[in-house]
Amino acid sequence: MIELRQLTKRYGTFTAVDRIDLTVGSGELFGFLGPNGAGKTTTLRMIAGILRPTSGSIRIAGVDLLQDPVAAKAKLGFIPDRPFIYEKLTGAEFLRFVAGLYDQAGPEVEHRARELLSLFDLEEWRDELVESYSHGMRQKLIISSAFVHRPAVIVVDEPMVGLDPKAARILKDLFREYTRRGHTIIFSTHTLEVAESLCDRVAIIAQGTIRAAGTMAELRRDLAEGEEGLERIFLRLTGENAARNLVDVLDA
Ligand SMILES: Nc1ncnc2c1ncn2[C@@H]1O[C@H](COP(=O)(O)OP(=O)(O)O)[C@@H](O)[C@H]1O
Ligand SMILES: [Mg+2]
After folding, report:
1. Which of 69, 154, 210, 243 is most solvent-facing, going by the fewest CB within 10 Å?
2. pTM for the complete prediction?
3. Ligand 1 atom closest to Cα of 17?
4. 158 Cα nearest atom in ligand 1
5. Which among 65, 247, 76 is positioned nearest to 151, based on CA atoms?
6. Cβ distance 77 to 86 under 8 Å?
7. Would you write out the chain's pLDDT as a tens digit for each of its 252 residues?
8. Which long-range contacts does 235-244 make (Cβ < 8 Å, 24+ apart)?
9. How many angstroms separate the alpha carbon of residue 16 from the centre of ligand 1?
């Protein structure tokens, strides 16, 4: 459903994403795991069609995103890390508006919007203006908007940040249920626990390149040195050794 070939993004002379190859299949819940600055947001924005790659190709459900952006984007929902919502719309209006962007309207959209708002405890807020929503409520509305038109592929940048535990739980269940029905979700996270508790498969990214990919069990089996746990593997692959080095220094 998502196919990246030699995907590259340079900002000036700086290479933020460096020749990434990745395939994510139908029904997969895929995690893009890496430290801050690894290139997750850059990659996801390219997949979502809002940032132009320097080189390489992207296919969404078999459609080339660069050659046929309208058809490819019609299959996508995107939840950015810093979302924008029109303040002067109500929650229900916003969901209707997003569905409209995908040429969807009518009773089915209204039904889905109602279900999503109720899932996230927003039903009493559906007719209130977004400007009166808290940060968490806005985020739940944005998440709902990626599901309201039922895209085949959903791309989510750091979905758990800013959610309270209950909303995070609901989101995880929604991700699982949505992929169980054959849709595809790719999301980024810098936390190992989120990736571990949620994903079918992950790719570990650092400094713009993929260091490893597979199921958590495969990563453990293939990459662990000795009794090394996942956290150590992750830190080693991403070169995030600062904390460990400090501990070593303090222990010495
Ligand atoms: N518009 C930009 N111009 C220059 N450098 C950028 C820009 N956006 C991101 N970068 C750099 O690209 C790298 C990857 O950033 P990003 O994709 O946001 O990483 P992540 O989401 O994994 O934290 C970082 O070093 C960041 O500073
Ligand atoms: Mg990011």
Report:
1. 243
2. 0.91
3. 14
4. 21
5. 76
6. no
7. 999 999 999 999 999 999 999 999 999 999 999 999 999 999 999 999 999 999 999 999 999 999 999 999 999 999 998 878 889 999 999 999 999 999 999 999 999 999 999 999 999 999 999 999 998 999 999 999 999 999 999 999 998 888 889 999 999 999 999 999 999 999 999 888 888 889 999 999 999 999 999 998 898 888 888 877 788 888 888 876 655 555 555 665
8. 237/204, 237/206, 237/211, 237/212, 238/34, 238/35, 238/38, 238/204, 238/205, 238/206, 238/211, 239/206, 239/207, 240/35, 240/206
9. 6
Is the minimum distance from the CB of 33 to ligand 1 under 6 angstroms? no
Q: Ligand 1 atom 14: the closest Cα is on which residue?
A: 39
- Distance from Cα 102 to the centre of ligand 2, integer Å: 26
Both tokens of residue 150?
Answer: 């039922």
Question: Cα of 109 to ligand 2 centre, how many Å?
Answer: 30
Ligand 1 lined by 238 (C-beta under 6 Å): no
Q: Give the separation between CA 160 and CA 167, rounded to whole angstroms.
A: 9
